[in-house]
Design brief:
By secondary structure, this protein is α+β, with helices and mostly antiparallel strands. The protein contains ten helices and 21 strands.
Amino acid sequence: MAREAVTPSNGAPGADAPVDPAGRRARVRERFEDSAAVAFVVSSIVNVRYLTGFTGSAGTLALFSEGPALLVTDSRYDPQATEEVDDGVEVRIASRSSLAEVREELASRGAVPVAVEGEHLTVAKWEEWREEGGPEAEGVTGWVEDVRAVKAPAEVDAIRRAAEIVDGVLAEVLELVRPGVAERKLAAELVHRVLTAGAERMAFDPVVAFGERSALPHARATARELVPGELALFDFGAVVDGYCSDLTRTVSCGDPGDEMREVYDVVHDAQAAAIEGLRGGMSGREADALAREPIEAAGWGERFGHSLGHGVGLEIHEAPKMSKKSEDSVPAGAVVTVEPGVYIAGRGGVRIEDDVVVRSDGCEVLTSAPKDELLIL
C-alpha cells in the first residue's frame, strides 16, 4: 500500500525544524560562568548548525560572552548563511580558512583565553592555531552536546516524523522477505523507500543481516541470500528536517528453532523492562542495567556486548550514552535509543530497538513497528 510522503516542517526539504538558536546560544554561554574563557570557538559543523540554523557543510562559529556571535564560511554559502541565521549572528564570507579568520578576529579583539572544542579540533588545526599566534586557548568538552541532549518540542516532532517513515518502510520491505532474497537487495529497497517517503537522506548505512551474520551488530549488507529457518535483522534510520530516527527489528524466515525463539523473548522482555523503568535523571549506567540485568539473569549476559542505547538528534549517535560504565546523566527531554541485543557467533543474533523520549515520570516511544512476538515470515 502506498504511503503519503512525510513533508518537512516548513515544506522545504533539508530545512531545520523551527528552533530557537538564540536561546541555545544563551544556554551555552552559561558555561562561560565556570570558565575563564571570554570566547568559544565552535568547529563542529553540527554544533554550528545547532547554534545558528546554518545548514552549510563548512564554517566556524565564534561565540562571545557578550554581543553577536560570528559565523565565518565561504562563498559557496553566500547569501545562504545570512538568510538562515538570526540577527544575533554576524556572517562573514572569507576566502581562506574559516578557522584562520576566526583566529585573527579573536586576536584583534584581545579575547583571552578562548575555549575550543576539544573533541572536534584536530591536532593539525590546533598546531596551526599555536604556530600562527592564536590566542591562549583551552580545550573543553560537552559545552554544546550537553545542551543538545535535551530536545525541544520541534526537535522531537522532527524525530517523530522520521520514525514514522522507518516504521512504514519496514512494513513494506518485510513483504519482500523470502528465501533467496539478498541482503543488498533489501538494503537497497530500504534506501529507495525511505527517500521516496520524504526523508532527506538515510541516517546511516542500513544494516541487513541474515542467519549467522545477524550476530554482527553492525554488519554490512552483502550478496548473502536468505535461507529458510534463518533470522533477518534490519537496522536503519531516516533524516527529516535534519533529525535522525533509528529502528531495529529482527524477524525470521520460517521457524528459527527453540534457541532463537528463546533469545528473542529474552531480548524483548529486557527491552520492555528498560522502557518501563527509564526515567529522566538516571545515569547511563543505571539505565543500561534495566535491560542488562534480566539478560544476565537469563544466562545471556556475555552475549550482550554493546550499550543499551544512545541519544539521537542531529547526529545518529549523540549524548547521552547509556552503557554499563557511563555516568552520563539521562535528562528528561532526551531522545534515546533502547536497543538491547543478544548475539551468538556462528548462529545468529537478535536486537530490538526503538526511539523514546525520556520524561521525568517515564518514556514516550516514537517508533511503533510490531515487536511483541517474533514475526515468522
